[in-house]
């Protein structure tokens, strides 16, 4: 067994492990910048760099310990649009997969790349990566949280509903990593969340507490219809996250929390439906909603690129 190496002295770097690392003002700045950049390049080919190329010469290394389509492609295209480049590593085919330590990997990648994005299981691994890295580390999803997704979700909410403070957001299904970041966003951006989950699948109390302490109304209920009533935004996600076992009991418990048209009808008439994707249509959401007029899931997916750009700019000290 190798000993844990001493912490090297690192310059100040902005890592984005959770939304609170940036805070409400920086997140608002990210959303503004994302909207401006999105508007400025409307109609352009996706690979054409933004006019200012603010990250020219910069390299992002991405380490994936779990599958990804959106996070992987959006960070890669985001770096290209900002004038930089990205490198995609599958952790299973790196020496990490053979037991090289997170600490050593962090220090090596810090010498070779200007920022590191990590998708992994245990949140402690990304904290360790940030501890030993000399460059910004970005959370591309852990079992605990998915902050990059939520910057895109906030951008999508603002595009469709205009203002976050006081918004009534309703979550249905599993109390998972995506919900944790929504609750953290609520605390920072001052909106309310109704959380409809079966007993035993509630979110981590830490995130509920954080939002309540910030003055948000957070309702925990097992009544999906009540949670949907007059909501502005309805959100769900897979009932079985990556790395979880597909337990029959869990799937059975989730049945009353499927988002269908009857649930949508209880919300405000201009409510929107969000899903981070990938979706399991027929499980957590019915096709009538997923394909329906209130669904903005593909705007949300596209917004991953615009959001990643702002997150990267913040990490490099060029924003907020
Ligand atoms: N929403 C999201 O993170 O998608 P991927 O798993 O495809 O990256
Ligand atoms: N909760 C899901 C999100 C996927 C983007 C998971 O962790 O698998």
Outline:
The chain has 320 residues and is an alpha/beta fold.
Task: Outline the structure in words.
Residues 7-12 have low confidence and may be disordered. The protein has helices at 19-22, 24-40, 70-81, 102-112, 123-132, 147-161, 177-189, 205-213, 224-228, 248-254, 261-266, 287-290, 297-315; strands at 59-64, 85-90, 115-119, 137-139, 168-172, 192-196, 218-221, 233-236, 272-275. The termini are far apart. By secondary structure, it is α/β, with parallel strands linked by helices. The protein contains 13 helices and nine strands. Strands 7-6-5-8-9 form a five-stranded parallel β-sheet. Strands 2-1-3-4 form a four-stranded parallel β-sheet, sandwiched between helices. It is globular, with a radius of gyration of 19 Å. The protein binds phosphoric acid mono(formamide)ester (CP) and norvaline. Phosphoric acid mono(formamide)ester binds next to helix 3.
The largest β sheet comes out as: 5 strands, parallel
Oligomer: single chain
Large-scale geometry: globular
Strand order of the largest sheet: 7-6-5-8-9
Distance between the termini: 42 Å
Estimate what percentage of residues fall within beta strands.
5-15%
Number of helices: 13
> Gyration radius, to the nearest Å?
19 Å
| Secondary structure: number of strands | 9
Bound molecules: phosphoric acid mono(formamide)ester, norvaline
Listing every helix as H and every strand as E from the N terminus to the C terminus, the arrangement reads HHEHEHEHEHEHEHEHEHHEHH
């Amino acid at each position: 067994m190798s000993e844990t190496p001493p912490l090297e002295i690192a310059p100040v770097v902005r890592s984005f492990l959770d939304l609170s690392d940036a805070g409400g003002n920086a997140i608002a700045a990210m959303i503004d910048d994302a909207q401006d950049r999105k508007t400025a390049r409307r109609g352009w080919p996706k690979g054409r760099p933004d006019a200012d190329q603010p990250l020219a010469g910069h390299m992002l290394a991405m380490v994936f310990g779990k599958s990804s389509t959106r996070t992987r492609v959006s960070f890669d295209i985001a770096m290209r649009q900002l004038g930089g480049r990205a490198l995609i590593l599958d952790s299973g085919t790196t020496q990490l997969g053979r037991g090289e330590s997170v600490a050593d990997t962090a220090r090596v990648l810090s010498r070779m790349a200007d920022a590191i994005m990590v998708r992994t299981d245990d949140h402690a691994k990304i904290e360790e990566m940030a501890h030993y890295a000399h460059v910004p580390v970005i959370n591309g999803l852990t079992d605990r949280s998915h902050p990059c997704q939520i910057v895109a979700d906030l951008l999508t909410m603002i595009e469709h509903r205009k203002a976050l403070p006081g918004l009534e957001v309703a979550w249905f299904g599993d109390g998972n990593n995506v919900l944790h970041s929504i609750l953290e966003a609520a605390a920072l951006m001052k909106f309310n969340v109704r959380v409809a989950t079966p007993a035993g699948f509630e979110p981590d109390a830490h995130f509920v507490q954080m939002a309540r302490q910030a003055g948000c109304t957070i309702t925990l209920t097992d009544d999906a219809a009540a949670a949907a009533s007059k909501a502005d935004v309805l959100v769900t996600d897979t009932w079985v996250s990556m790395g979880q076992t597909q337990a029959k009991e869990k799937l059975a418990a989730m049945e009353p929390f499927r988002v269908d048209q009857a649930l949508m009808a209880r919300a405000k008439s201009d409510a929107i439906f969000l899903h981070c994707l990938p979706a399991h249509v027929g499980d957590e959401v019915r096709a009538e909603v997923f394909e329906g007029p209130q669904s903005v899931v593909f705007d949300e997916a596209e917004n991953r690129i615009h959001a990643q750009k702002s997150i990267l700019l913040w990490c490099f000290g060029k924003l907020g």
